[in-house]
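EI: anyone free to look at a 293-residue chain?
SC: sure, send it
EI:
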Amino acid sequence: MDDWPNITEPMLRERQAMTDEEFFEYLAGLLEAVGTRELDDEHYERAIGYPWERPPGSCLVTDEAVVNLSDMDADVREELVQRYVDESDDRVPLLTYGANGSPERLSLKLAHLPAGEREALILAGYLEDFDVGVAAQGPWFSSMPATLIPSAGTAVRVAALFLTPVQFTALWWTELSYRVGALTGIRLTTDATEAPIERVIVFIARFGAFCVDGAPVAMAAIDARNRYSSALTQTQILEAAARLSIGEDASARDLIKAAFENPAAFMADRFDRFRAASVPFESNHWAEMPVDS
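SC: here you go
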């Protein structure tokens, strides 16, 4: 697939067309509408668990179960991969490196779709010359989510989802603070395909990558080879952001509490500090999806 996803949802296209400043103003209005809430232990534990559990290899996600491709007969596995990758021109090859690579979270995002649209194949593999960092945004929704960062010589464990347009649209709705684009001329080697994948659609955080001591940090929960960015757990990431935005003695829970309980006030008061600790995504392989595609 060498073209762009055919998305007709007006709000998604409008969101894609926003400048960053327009989007941040739009987000502030959404957070204002959320109002105030009270943090409980369940939400906090979910927040520090990001990017959530995932199998070590490729898998098929259905309504009933998660089946590892390594447990399938070879001919069944080959037919499945061929059906998803080679025989369907309308599927969107989406790179996933965060929550969408978790079978549980992916299944939840697709659960409201009609029958036939709730099955997904997660093809795990290594993407060369990139790493998985942290979006420089407050955890007003839950955690500080992932974003891609260039990293020459690194190979990071990611996955490719070959989605129907309906499935891709459903996931795009959940990726509020991300732009849609494509990475071209890359090398993504999966566990189940013979040739490397050279082009994928990808969500990239508008907020840029979160930096500690002036450099982007990587997510320790995501495996990588030849990683040179400092790798932090989600708790360590939140602790660093708490010190930055609240004060030297602030904890990860202090940050989650402040951002969750009054998200609009947190963004208004702390956003500039996150922005100062961010670096935008830049890569010769990246192109943003045009709104009129």
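EI: The chain is about 35% helix and 30% strand.
SC: 👍
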